[in-house]
Amino acid sequence: MVTDKADGACQLHNVQFYNLLPRAIVCSAFGQLQKKLAQARDDGTIEIWNMANAPFLEKTIPGGEGISIEGLAWAGSRLFSVSLAGTLIEWDLGKIPSVKQSILVTGNAAWCIDVSKDERLLAVGTEGGYINVYRLDNDEVAYERILDKQEGRIVCCCFDWTGNFLVTGSADAVRVWDVRNGHAVHKMTTGRSNRNQETTVWAVQVMQDFTIVSADSRGKLVIYDGHMGTVLEQHVVSSADLLCLAQDVERNCIFVGGVEPTIRVFERMKTRHHHNGDKQFVRAYTRRGHTHDIKTMVASGRYLFSGGLDGSLLVTASRPVTVDVHFPLLPSPSSRVVRDCRLILLKYVNYLEVWTLAPPNKPAEGGTKVLQIRSKNDEHIVCAAMSSNGRWIVYSTEHTVRLLRYDYNREEPVHSRLLRVTNTPEQLAVCYRADFTPDSTGLFLYDRTGEGTINFFSCTAGDSEEWDHKQSIDAGRWLSEMVHLSAVSSCNRYLVCADVASSIVVFERTAESKWKRSISLPRYKLPPTAFALQPGQTRLAVAFSDHKLFVYDFDQFTFVFSTYVKVSAADHSIGGIAFDPRHESALVLQNGPKILSLRYGPEIEEEMLQQEERSWNKRQRPLMNGSTHGNGGGGGEGSLTKYKLRTVRDAPRLVAIEWLAENELVATQANALSMVEHLPAAFRKKAYGKR
C-alpha cells in the first residue's frame, strides 16, 4: 500500500506482504550478571537479548530441522542448554556463537536443567528418570554424580538456595533430593483429578525458606513445606494445565502461567486467620498480553519476561504497570530495498522472496512476488543481500553460501532468469553478514571463523562479470565482538562497522582500492542499536540502547548533534535510522511500533531556547524533551542538543524503514494475519451468560 503524498510530506510504501510465521518460545533463562535473556524457539534457534536498558536482540544461534531445545540456564556469563538429543551443551558466546563443549547425559532425552544459586552445581533431568549432576569449576564441566533412578521422566527441576537439595517434578509426584548423597528425602504425591489420567508436574520453584511451589496439569498451584515434605496450601488457578512458574524474590510473590493465556500473581502475606506469624499465598492480580499458551517465564527485579506459543516476548512490569510486546521477528537486516529496480528482498527462516514496489503515484502496480529462493536442505538462512541494480543475490547458511545472478525482466517478470555463480573464489565462504556497495560492483562478507575478517570482493567489468577476491580486512584488530551493524556510504568510499562491545570503526577506500581503518569513534558505555550514514556527507547517526543519539562527522572529528531522545515507546530501543534526503538536519527513526521524525539544527536550537525562556525561569526550567543531556556520553563542546520530535505514524510489527527515493519511504511490516492463522485455537473459557 502506498499512501498519498501531502504538501511537504513523502509517499510511504507500506509493505505488508512480509508473511512471517509464528515461532513459539519454549524455554528461557535470565543471566543476572550481564542482564541478558536467553530464549529458545521451537525451531531450535537460541536468541540472546540485552535487557540492561531498552531490550534489543544482540545475538542469534541458528537452529535447524530436528533440533529441539528443552531447557536453558546461565552460570555467570556461561550459557547451557539441553535437548531431546540427550546432550548438555555449553555455548561459546564470543565473536561468533558456537558450541564450546557437548556432553552426552545418562538417561536419553534431556527435559530440564538448573544451576544452583552459588553457580557451583548443574543438574539435568532426563527421560529415563536419571538426574545428572555436574560441577562447574574453573570454566569446566566435571561429572559429579547421578542421583537414584526414579520411574518416569524428570519434567522439571530446581535447586534450593543452599545448593544441597534439588526439587524435581514428574508424573504424580514432587521429590526432594539430597544432592550430597544422591538419595530422595521426600516424595509428595499430587493426587489425580481423574484416576485414569496421571498428573504431570510441569514446573517447580523453591523459595528462600525452603517452601516449594509446584504447577501441574490439573491447573493447581500447590505449596509444600520442603523440610517436612507436607502440603501447606492448594489453589485451583485454571481449568487447564499450568505450565510455568517464576519467582520475585524481593516482593516474595509467585507468577503462574499456562494454557490459559493469563499470568496470575500470588503474593505471600499475613492474613487475619493466621495469628502465629505464618504467611499464606493470596491471589493478587493478573497480567494479560499473550493470546495462546504461556510456556516460560523469568522474573528479574520489577520485570517479568514471558513467552509462549504465539512467539511474542512479553515484558511486563509493575508499579507502574507496563506491557511491552516484542513480536517474533527475524534478526535485522531481514529486508533490503533495491532502489534501482524498485524491488525489496525479504528474508525468511529458510527461503528468500523478492517483491516489486509500486511506481510513484501508481499504488496498484506494486506488491507482486517475482522470485522465491529456498536454501539448500532447508537450512536456516543466516544472512542475505541484494545489489542495488538487482543483478546479484547472496545468502549464507551455517554450512553453505550461494552467489546468484538475477536477470530481472521488468516488463515481463516471468521471463526473468536466476543463475548460480559457480566460479567463485575460495574466500567466498559462509558468513554471518553481507553487504553490497551501492554501485553493485563490490561485496563484503563477514567471515564466520571468529577471527574478525571481512572479505572484500569486486566484480570485473565486461561480459564475463566475474567476482574476484581483492582483500581480507583484519577488522578483528579494532572490533572485539561480532559486527551487528554495518553500512556502506553512497560514494562507495566508506564502510562503517559496529559491534556489541560498543566499538564503531570507519574503514576508508584508498586510491589503490584497498580498505584501511580511518577512525574509531568515541566509545559509549552501551552498545549501539542502529546507525545510518548521511548520503553525500561524512556524518554518522548512532543510537544506543538508552536512547542516546548523536550525529558525528568523522571527517571533521566533531559531534554535530548529541542528545537523549525522549521517545513515546520508551521500552523499545531505536531499531532503525534513516537520514531524510530532503533536509540536511532531519532523521526518521524506528522506535518499536512507531515511525518518528526528528529535526535538529541551529534554527531548532534557537527556537527551543526561546520557548524555554518564555515559559520557565532559567535556573529552574525542567528538561526540554530530555535534550539538555546533549553532551552526555562523549558529546563534544558546541554540538547541538535541542530537537523536535513527532510521530509520523503507528506501524505495528514494524521491521525496517528505508528510503527508496527522495520522496519515497519504505516501511516494512510483518503481516499480522500470517502470525496468527497458523496457530492452534486459543484456550476458550465459557463466560456466564454468554454464548
In a few lines, what is going on in this structure?
This protein is mainly β and 691 residues long. The protein contains one helix and 55 strands.
What does the overall shape look like? globular
Termini gap: 38 Å
Beta percentage is over 45%
Integer-rounded radius of gyration: 27 Å
What are the low-pLDDT stretches, counting only 5+ consecutive residues below 50?
A: 621-635
What descriptive keywords fit this protein?
4-stranded antiparallel sheet; single chain; 691 residues; Methylamine Dehydrogenase, Chain H; mainly beta; 1 helix; 2% helix; 55 strands
Can you offer a commentary on this structure?
- With 691 residues, the protein is an all-beta fold.
- The protein is built from one helix and 55 strands.
- A four-stranded antiparallel beta sheet has the order 2-3-4-5, with no helix packed on it.
- The longest helix is centred in the C-terminal third of the chain and has 14 residues, at 602-615.
- It is globular.
- Mean pLDDT is 90; it is low at 621-635.
Give the helices and strands, then pairings.
Layout lengths: L10 E8 L6 E7 L4 E6 L4 E5 L5 E6 L7 E7 L2 E6 L3 E6 L5 E7 L5 E6 L5 E6 L4 E7 L2 E7 L9 E4 L5 E6 L2 E6 L4 E7 L11 E6 L4 E6 L3 E6 L4 E7 L5 E7 L4 E6 L3 E8 L10 E9 L5 E7 L2 E6 L4 E5 L4 E5 L8 E4 L4 E5 L3 E6 L12 E6 L8 E4 L5 E5 L4 E7 L9 E4 L10 E6 L5 E6 L5 E7 L7 E8 L8 E6 L5 E6 L4 E6 L5 E6 L7 E6 L5 E6 L3 E6 L4 E7 L9 E6 L6 E6 L2 E6 L2 H14 L28 E7 L3 E8 L2 E7 L21
Parallel strand pairs: 1-55
Antiparallel strand pairs: 2-3, 3-4, 4-5, 6-7, 7-8, 8-9, 10-11, 11-12, 12-13, 14-15, 15-16, 16-17, 18-19, 19-20, 20-21, 22-23, 23-24, 24-25, 26-27, 27-28, 28-29, 30-31, 31-32, 32-33, 34-35, 35-36, 36-37, 38-39, 39-40, 40-41, 42-43, 43-44, 44-45, 46-47, 47-48, 48-49, 50-51, 51-52, 52-53, 54-55
Protein name: WD_REPEATS_REGION domain-containing protein
GO molecular function, one term: RNA binding
Pfam families: ANAPC4_WD40
